[in-house]
Amino acid sequence: MSSLTVTDQHISATKAKVIQPAWVRVMHWTNAVAMILMILSGWQIYNASPLFNFSFPRDYTLGGWLGGGLLWHFAAMWLLMINGLAYLVTGFVSGRFRKKLLPITPSGVLHDVRAALTFKLGHDDLSVYNYVQRTLYAGIIVVGVLIVLSGLSMWKPVQLHWLVTLFGDYPTARYVHFFCMAAICAFLVIHVLLALLVPKSLRAMIIGR
Amino acid sequence: MAKRPFLIPGVDRRLLIKDSIKIMPDVTRRRFIAGGASLGALTLLTGCDVVDSSSADALLTKISKFNDAVQDFIFNPDALAPTFPESAITKPFPFNAYYDLDDAPDVDGDAWKLEVRGLVDDKKSWTLPELTKLPQFTQITRHICVEGWSAIGSWTGTPLRDFLKLVGADTRAKYVWFQCADKDGYNSPLDMRTALHPQTQMTFKYAGETLPRAYGFPMKIRVPTKLGFKNPKYVMSMEVTNDYKGGYWEDQGYNSYSGS
């Protein structure tokens, strides 16, 4: 059964190829599902009392009516929060955030943005994030934290009134929640577009390598 | 996703739904249609035909009940809703209901009596002059609607907990259940801990004036720790009870606790 015997070299070679560890992949896709549920049900809730002069098309909302949208929103929030919290803790403890997302220097960001816009930004080594990726990934984590905090302060404006104070007042927390959603949607568009442009990055997020 | 077998083979599904909608009571119909309407989005999401929407509905209901328990757990009876100066009051304060202002109950204050039922020592009914003789306080708080908007208003009245004490209510009971004069019979359960919250108020005045018809004359229950739909207006009776009797909006799917 020679096919079953693998040398140490083989193992280390295979291990080195893993770009996205299993926990990242599981949490990434869990987050993707939770985010989409939150966004679509959130649009339903927004439509009940729009902040701006527009509503979201009914076909892109979840729940059928305000009550249904709220049920989805307050169910998916658990998935989003538990998964998000686990991601933050693992990211910090494992050192992944530090290794992958830092440092972010202004000159590095400027250089890579210019390179990206002229289609000269290489993706030869997927295990190293360029400065555009670092900025977007670190930024979206901050937005993710903000959208949860502003959401919590809208859900519990009395029990968590100190959190509301952090945003100013209740109506401001609503706007913060909305703009964080908008930022996540913008990120989502760019993120998916780039994943499709560099399919091997998508493959890494699915099978790990 | 598992498909449900048809109850009657050969019967057109759409016609069956159409027929059954007709015989459903209003509330059930609304929920039924709501469940169906979410299907489109869910199909879009999962890419598969989720015929079995009732299981999704059941799961969401279960999670909503879990959320009731979580909210009850984190409810701090001493946490006060922020109060505001008079200058912060929203003018005009919005009228909001599931009907137009013209359809709002027009209660005759002279004939009106507040019925007190259930687990209380003194079941006598109260007239408006009797009630307004009780000590009153004014509080300016933010009213937050389930729809997301909010408005700051000034409400004056007697703390509900003082009244419950006065009538000898069993405050170990689970709920105070309010029935109101709104058309189609609005009612709503209030958990006892919230009923005993120092800011929960039997309201007789808005902005220093007798409560106008738009805001719930003759009596409103102002609960700054709950969403607006759990602030009963045009109150006719209150019942201290251990039974969960449901509510107008709660039965349609709004989270029952809906606490702030």
Describe the structure.
The complex is a heterodimer of chains A (209) and B (260). Chain A is 73% helix and 0% strand. Chain A is built from 9 helices and no strands. The two termini of chain A are 27 Å apart. Chain B is of the alpha+beta class. In chain B, strand 1 and strand 2 (126-127) form a beta hairpin. The longest helix of chain B is centred in the first third of the chain and has 22 residues, at 53-74. Residues 1-7 and 32-37 of chain B have low confidence and may be disordered. Chain A binds chain B through residues 36-37, 40, 45-46, 48-49, 59-68, 70-72, 74-75, 78, 154, 156-159, 161, 164, 170-171, 174, and chain B through 30, 33-38, 40-42, 44-45, 59-61, 63-64, 67, 74-76, 79-82, 142, 144-150, 224-225, 249, 252-255, 259-260.
Biggest sheet, spatial arrangement of strands of chain B? 2-1-10-5-6
Q: Averaged pLDDT of chain B, please?
A: 87
| N-to-C span of chain A | 27 Å
**Low-pLDDT runs of chain A:** 1-9
Tally of individual helices of chain B? 6
Provide the residue-averaged pLDDT of chain A: 91
Biggest β-sheet of chain B, characterized? 5 strands, mixed
Instruction: Provide the β-strand percentage band of chain A.
Output: under 5%
The assembly state of the depicted protein chains is heterodimer
> How many whole angstroms does the radius of gyration of chain A measure?
20 Å
Helix and strand sequence of chain B: HHHEEHEEHEEHEEEE
Percent of residues in β-strands of chain B: 15-25%
Low-confidence stretches of chain B: 1-7, 32-37
Q: Tell me the series of helices and strands of chain A, N- to C-terminal.
A: HHHHHHHHH
